[in-house]
Amino acid sequence: MTISTSSVFSFKTAKFPGLGKGGRVQIPQHLHSQLDTSNRMRIIPWAAAEAVAQVLLGRVEAERIPNRLTVQTIDKEGQPVLMASHPAQATWVNAGQTVRPYILLIAEAQLAAKHTELAERWGALLHTIERHAVTLPTTEDHLVTLSHTAEFKDDLQRVLDTLYYTGKLYADTCSWITGPLSAPAAWTHSPVLLGQSPRQPGEPGADLSEEGRLTRRAAYGIRALLVGPTGCGKTELGKRVALSTGSTIVSLKGRPGLEDRDMIGFISPTLQGARWVDGPLARAMRLAQQGTRTTLLIDELLRLDAYHRNALIGLLDDVSATELKATLGVDVPDGRYYTLDLPGAGEVLYAPTRLLSVLCTTNAGSSYTQSGELDPALLRRFQRVMFVSYPAEAVIMPVYAKAATPGTARVAYALEVATRSMTVDQGQLLARPMNTGVTLNFLAEVQDLVQAGLSETNALREALLVTVTPFCCELTDEGLPDPAAVNALKARLEEQLRKGLLHKAA
């Protein structure tokens, strides 16, 4: 049994009218799959196009357990059809011969670590869809609109050519059988087909949190700017996202006066002669070029001088494999690439965008020491700008509870929240509110004082003066915290203590 080639090309679908609805529509040579290196003409496999549409429309469900992938789709009569893949045995169950095999290939690429080129091209297609502000799963109307955009058409044709040749090569080695199948208790992994996180029990759809969105995109490369007040967890968010995707993290801390050597790298004299030493940018590029999934984490972007931010503009411009070959003369797999010219080294690094994520953070507001404003030319190169707020209580309280007793943690968190409405720009006295870092310092000082013999209540009062007030209060001409602001903090702490938070039952 095999895929019916005549049915694949004679199939008709109206899902992508920008490409056509059937017939002999040629795929341009620069979009061809590397699985077949001949220069022969390629025709759109319309059954594969229908398979792509079914997945993008959310009409395909998937569940992965060890050595078995179960998939459910809808037949032309609107009835559910079950099929399965046993990747370890290269076996397909109830795969059909026209559309369903291509749905299985997409599922295997996303969920079974198979079909590398298909996984890469599918990720790029999802990336393009998101850039057009289309939410997945999408609608047929959105597919019609997308099919008329040049970028989507190119990415779709890349996927279709790869689907056809993956099926042609793989199906010949795969056992095709029919047999009874039963649906799993839940379709946990259906969102993964669309580049999203697996569905949690009872969760109806995709994770729309900052972390969920970034993690999905980082799986195939993302350029993102995280904006928010200091101490709200932007950097930690970036680290968690990187670790969740198995990335190697390369960090760069923005500061005025940073030199090229601190950012890109430098030539160092050695006994063996001059040698290039990678800085963070070059190190991240080289790791990705060597096939390592990498996250370049640039902290406090606006503390970099404008000169170095301009260097990032060039780095974040990606080029096609064709352009890379034309400029550097290197043959690389199809895809998009970043390039970095190493000054004085005579070397140009190139890295696939799917393996290199660039996450930058910057503080919000005029009270922070920053070097100018964000250039629109740099801003537009970020595929996602996310405004990160303070962590929710359910997220941060377990962290605070580890740093102190539950009662002390409750008081500290309540005080932190209260200070957000006590600032000068709110008509009050504080220069700035508490943040996560200040609260953790506060709790550490409380614990130290308790161990020294103070009661928790007195420890909270004393710790306030050496951790919270120096950060939250403006300094007077004498170099001391503003007394009125200090008294406001003291009063708010006493208010939390009167509420009984310190001794409230868990």
Automatic annotation (TrEMBL):
Ranges for domain AAA+ ATPase: 220-392
Pfam families, per the entry: AAA_5
Superkingdom of origin organism: Bacteria
SUPFAM superfamilies, alphabetized: P-loop containing nucleoside triphosphate hydrolases
GO molecular function: ATP binding; ATP hydrolysis activity
Name assigned to this protein: ATPase
